Amino acid sequence: MVKVDIEIQNIVLTVTYKDTEFDLEELAGILKGARYEPEVFPGVIYKSKTPRASFLIFASGKMNCVGAKSMKDAEKAIKELTNKLKNSGVKIKGKPKIKVRNMVASLNFHREFDVEQIAREFPNTEYEPEVFPGLVLRLDEPKVVILLFVSGKGVCVGAESITDIKKAAKKITKVISK
User: Fold this and answer.
1) Percent helix, strand and coil across the chain, each rounded to 5?
2) DSSP characters for 39-105?
3) Within a 10 A sphere around the Cβ of 77, how many other Cβ atoms?
4) Which of 63, 149, 49 is nearest to 98 (CA)?
5) Nearest to residue 137, comparing CAs of 109, 151, 158?
6) Is residue 53 within 8 Å of residue 73, measured between CB atoms?
């Protein structure tokens, strides 16, 4: 079995505070470095430094968290932001509901690929080297997209867990070792 190195590059999550609405003007004043330009974007843009993550905060009590490289970092950034808001007097009821929407990971298969052959032999692939140098491989289970490159490197997008990424990498190693 081929060893595959997996490195998470980005996690996208939605965060929902039940029965909560945010005053975006107020939040922009509370959060140091936050940007709020309602004529450009209908939410507050805020970046936390440690752990590194960016937030898009909406009046509805929902926000997106992007840029974390691990679930631990994402959860810590969300917890710290929640505490910062609560400590500033923002009314938040209970813990936020967190859902992973997308994980992006780089993959290293430690071998080169004949992407043209893979494209000919396997369904759910797209390969147009004039447009994009990688092979696009769509998996049904887990439901992810893998970009494979001749170099033996790849990118997995659309995963909702590290388990999905590992399953996808395992499937690809089976496909390419035939």
Assistant:
1) 25, 35, 40
2) TT-SSEEEEETTTTEEEEE-TTSEEEEEEESSHHHHHHHHHHHHHHHHHTT----SPPEEEEEEEEE
3) 24
4) 63
5) 158
6) yes
pTM of the full predicted structure? Answer: 0.89
Residue 43 burial by Cβ neighbours in a 10 Å radius (0-12, 13-18, 19+): buried
Q: Which helix (H) or strand (E) holds 120?
A: helix 115-121
Task: Return the closest-CA partner of residue 119 out of 147, 141, 98.
Answer: 147
- Under the banding of pLDDT at 50, 70 and 90, the label for residue 152 is very high
Domains annotated for the chain, with CATH where assigned, are: 18-95 (3.30.310.10), 103-176 (3.30.310.10)
Averaged pLDDT, 101-128? 93
Whether residue 135 contacts residue 148, with contact meaning beta carbons closer than 8 Å, is answered with yes
